[in-house]
Amino acid sequence: MKKIMVIGAVDSGKTSLLMAIHGETGQVSKTQTIEYKSFTIDTPGEYIENPRMYRALMSTSLEAKCIMFTQDSTISKSIFPPGFARAFNCMSIGVITKIDHPQSNPQRANELLMELGLKGPIFQVSALSGEGIDELKLFISSKNRVS
Ligand SMILES: Nc1nc2c(ncn2[C@@H]2O[C@H](COP(=O)(O)OP(=O)(O)OP(=O)(O)O)[C@@H](O)[C@H]2O)c(=O)[nH]1
Ligand SMILES: [Mg+2]
């Protein structure tokens, strides 16, 4: 079965997001390497922050039917090169994270994600409060049905 992969900056909330999707609670730890868990693939933020690791992201993405690109809504800049999502053949969506945070600016995060050339929609979530997680899960499960 093809998987759902997540790519985004260090600390953008990728692992927390996957934990919320899997219904897991507890302490989040730093992602050191590419991690497979049932239908998801987690990646370390360093892999998008270091262009030498792009190749690893590209080859891993062959196992994915959908890539979630995370943008931390408390951060004012994007780590992604413009049009980056177009480099991947599969479905691509944006996920705006940490919308519960007092410094969250979802509008700015949305504008940053719009530069990626995503094929699919952009979701707004908080792994902390659970807001937006059900909507994202619904979209993911619809992708699971089609292939
Ligand atoms: N307020 C708030 N904090 C969050 C949320 N999601 C994650 N965080 C915090 O952001 C920090 C980084 O979260 P991670 O899930 O480890 O981020 P990551 O993208 O997996 O980071 P790397 O594995 O280093 O690439 C942690 O301190 C989390 O508690 C959220 O929805 N709201
Ligand atoms: Mg992580």
Kindly describe this structure:
The chain has one domain: Rossmann fold (3-Layer(aba) Sandwich). Helix content is 29%, strand content 21%. The chain is built from 5 helices and 6 strands; from the N terminus they run βαββααββαβα. Strands 2-3-1-4-5-6 form a 6-stranded mixed sheet. The longest helix is centred in the C-terminal third of the chain and has 14 residues, at 133-146. The protein starts with a strand and ends with a helix. It binds guanosine-5'-triphosphate and magnesium ion (MG). The site of guanosine-5'-triphosphate (GTP) has 20 residues, from helix 1.
Quick structural overview:
The chain is an alpha/beta fold.
Largest sheet: 6 strands, mixed
CATH class reads Alpha Beta
The end-to-end distance, rounded to whole angstroms, is 8 Å
Low-confidence stretches: none
Number of strands: 6
Q: State the order of secondary-structure elements, H for helix, E for strand.
A: EHEEHHEEHEH
* The named CATH superfamily: P-loop containing nucleotide triphosphate hydrolases
Throw out a few tags for this protein:
globular, binds guanosine-5'-triphosphate, 6 strands, 5 helices, binds magnesium ion, 147 residues, alpha/beta, 6-stranded mixed beta sheet, Rossmann fold
Would you spell out the secondary-structure blueprint of this structure?
Layout: E1 3-8, H1 14-22, E2 35-37, E3 40-42, H2 46-49, H3 54-60, E4 64-72, E5 91-97, H4 106-114, E6 122-124, H5 133-146
Parallel strand pairs: 1-3, 1-4, 4-5, 5-6
Antiparallel strand pairs: 2-3
The structure holds guanosine-5'-triphosphate (GTP) and magnesium ion (MG).
Residues 8, 10-16, 28, 30-31, 44-45, 97-98, 100-101, 126-128 line the site of guanosine-5'-triphosphate.
